[in-house]
Design goal:
By secondary structure, the chain is α+β, with helices and mostly antiparallel strands. It has 21 helices and 17 strands. It catalyses: ATP + protein L-histidine = ADP + protein N-phospho-L-histidine.
């Protein structure tokens, strides 16, 4: 250490030093002595030995009367700063010299006076040694305490009765920015610009002699600090105040953190209470205990829950609601938060929601901090509600003691979706009927041909029977042709009925080439009238498609009819419409309908699927829009592009049948 810590009694506030003052005086002395050179220590030992020998010589070989041996105490004081061993050694030497001198001086001529002086000297030396050792122990303890104060990160400042700084520790230097040499002797309030209630401090001093509280001070760089401070009033032996010793800790950052936390908690509370969606905080400790009973493969956990619905029920029963916001109270039609707090939702979830809940619990059990799924629950009033349930385990709650649950009411959304799907189905049916109307001539031709053939073959068979010798072979041949043409007419009617029916067909596997053939059968006469050649090709063997067969066929017929219409005005090239089937990525099948018509204007490419957009004077603009809706509902997509040559190509995809279906 390079700076002196010595302070006079006057520096510490006048009067006799208190125990606190002595602590710092002892620390300064010990610190000073600890830096004494080795030579000084040796001189102390030599001086003590010389003094002891001189006293011994005088005591042993002179006739000086009195307890001269008491002077050995001076030698003990000389070596006292050198440590415990030096003190004890000096005391032993002093007592030994005293006894030896007594023996040499008096021999066998003992008298009571000499013996009393001997005892007095030995007792004096012993008592002095004990007092020095006790003082040293006290001083050592005080020095250690002083070192602790010096090493403390808290600030320690001693002020006199005039508020002048007389001690300033390292913690004060680091916190306030002034060195000890700059601070000592300065007026504390002027230096640190203290802000506190002096009346409160004085009242505490008068009542208890100390004060604890917060105050604001200013650093050297001008920054304000908030301190948690403890002040002890220093008094002299007469009980008169002589100053203050204080210890302070910087709590500025802590207060800022606490304020930020309070603000955050207030924001959270405001959001929680005013959110337009249901939110509640739950204790899921028991839920986690229930789920932790499973010790098998975590990848099979969801299947285990599905196979054991009683476990799912127990897990739901263990989720206890702590607090719910007003939106949750409204969702459950509870009337008040108290009716939800402390309860669980067992019995609120409908059985059909258990698979969704099992999936949600399995996600959390695998270590995810959040999970979401749609479930159906029943309010306290018995009303069924569809909700999207979002469960979040709070970051500081690995034991699931604090779980935040959010529920978004999607009942109206689901009802609206159902209405839209119903409307879409009805619109698609209307479009199919309209499409059949456009193909009525072609359909009539397709039906009329086999009916005409049936009539001709029936008349022919009748003639063969009316002969004198009926030709039964020819009659049988005519009947077979009648059956064939009847089946042909029935197949045409079957296709028309399939497109015209209004019922929703469940998704199932079907053959794409077959529905292409059926679609071409409906438009073949129309194509023949317009001089269009129809071609169908496939890129190898295709897997079965999966979806609504009728609606996919409707899309095909619509696109084929659009292609035929697009080639009405083509006169400079062969009219041809090609349908190409193939495999697309991601488990999809691809269908391309390509014509050689006029194509689309560039600005119309992005609008062809918009409702009511049409490039035909007689069109309504709903055909392609309905096609897109159908294909996207099936899980595919549809696009249109102009060919590099004449015409355009419409491509759509439908899912292939999964391998495990």
């Amino acid at each position: 250490m390079t700076r002196s810590r010595q302070h006079s009694n006057a520096d510490l506030g006048g009067g006799r030093p208190t125990s606190t003052d002595r602590l710092f005086i002892y620390y300064a002395v010990a610190d000073q002595l600890s830096r004494e050179p080795r030579m000084k220590s040796q001189l102390r030992v030599i001086g003590a030995l010389a003094l002891s020998l001189a006293v011994f010589m005088i005591d042993a070989f002179t006739t000086v009367n009195g307890a001269i041996a008491v002077v050995y105490i001076v030698a003990i004081f000389l070596v006292a700063p050198l440590g415990l061993r030096a003190i004890i050694a000096a005391a032993i030497v002093a007592i030994a010299f005293t006894l030896l001198a007594f023996g040499l001086q008096h021999g066998e001529q003992l008298n009571s006076s000499a013996l009393i002086r001997l005892v007095v000297c030995i007792v004096a030396i012993s008592l002095t040694t004990v007092l020095i050792l006790r003082d040293r122990a006290t001083r050592t303890s005080l020095v250690e305490q002083a070192r602790i104060l010096e090493l403390s990160h808290d600030t320690v400042i001693i002020r006199d009765k005039d508020d002048v700084i007389v001690y300033w520790n390292d913690g004060a230097e680091k916190l306030y920015g002034w060195m000890r040499s700059e601070a000592v002797g300065k007026h504390c309030e002027s230096l640190l610009k203290c802000r506190f209630s002096s009346e409160e401090v004085q009242a505490a001093f008068d009542l208890e002699g100390h004060w604890t509280g917060q105050l604001i001070r200013t650093r050297r760089d001008g920054a304000s600090l908030t301190l948690a401070s403890r002040w002890l009033q220093r008094k002299d032996d007469g009980g008169r105040p002589v100053g203050v010793i204080e210890s302070s800790a910087d709590v500025t950052a802590q207060l800022q953190h606490d304020e930020a936390r309070r603000a955050s908690e207030q924001r959270y509370r405001t959001i929680f209470e005013t959110a337009g969606f249901a939110t509640w905080e739950s204790n899921w400790l028991d839920t986690k205990r229930v789920l932790d009973q499973y010790t098998g493969d975590i990848s099979q956990f969801e299947d285990w829950l599905l196979a054991n619905p009683q476990v799912t029920q127990a897990a739901i029963r263990g989720a206890i609601i702590r607090n719910a916001n007003p939106a949750a109270v409204r969702l459950f039609q509870a009337g008040s938060n108290e009716k939800l707090s402390g309860t669980n939702l067992c019995g609120r979830y409908l059985p059909e929601s258990f698979p969704a809940i099992a999936q949600l619990l399995a996600t959390l059990r695998k270590g995810e901090m959040g999970a979401e799924n749609e479930v159906r629950l029943k309010s306290l009033a018995g009303e069924v509600v569809d909700v999207v349930l979002r469960v979040n385990i709070l970051p500081d709650s690995r034991d699931w003691a604090h779980v935040l649950v959010m529920a978004f009411d999607v009942t109206e959304r689901n009802l609206s979706r159902a209405r839209i799907e119903q409307t879409s189905a009805e619109l698609a049916h209307a479009a199919r009927v309209s499409l059949l109307g456009q193909l009525s001539a072609s359909i009539a031709h397709e039906v009329n041909q086999p009916l005409t053939a049936i009539l001709n073959y029936a008349r022919s068979g009748e003639r063969w029977l009316l002969r004198e010798e009926p030709d039964l072979t020819e009659v049988s041949s005519s009947l077979q042709r009648i059956v064939t043409n009847g089946n042909r007419a029935a197949e045409v009617i079957k296709r028309v009925k399939a497109l015209a029916k209004k019922t929703v067909t469940p998704a199932a596997s079907f053959s794409l080439p077959e529905i292409v053939e059926d679609a071409l059968g409906l438009v073949r006469h129309e194509a023949k009238l317009q001089g269009v050649k129809l071609k169908q090709s496939s890129e190898g063997t295709l897997p079965l498609a999966f979806g609504d067969r009728v609606q996919v066929q409707q899309v095909l017929v619509n696109l084929i009819v659009n292609g035929l219409h697009a080639m009405r005005d083509v006169t400079d090239r062969k009219r041809e419409l090609r349908i190409l089937l193939g495999v697309a990525p991601a488990g999809m099948l691809r269908v391309e309908v390509r014509d050689v018509g006029m194509g689309f204007a560039q600005e119309a490419i992005g609008k062809v699927f918009d409702p009511f957009f049409t490039t035909k004077a007689e069109g309504m603009g709903m055909g392609l829009s309905i096609c897109r809706s159908i294909i996207e509902t099936q899980g595919g997509h549809i696009i249109v592009r102009n060919n590099e040559g004449p015409g355009a190509t419409v491509t759509f995809t439908v899912p292939a049948t999964p391998e495990n279906t």
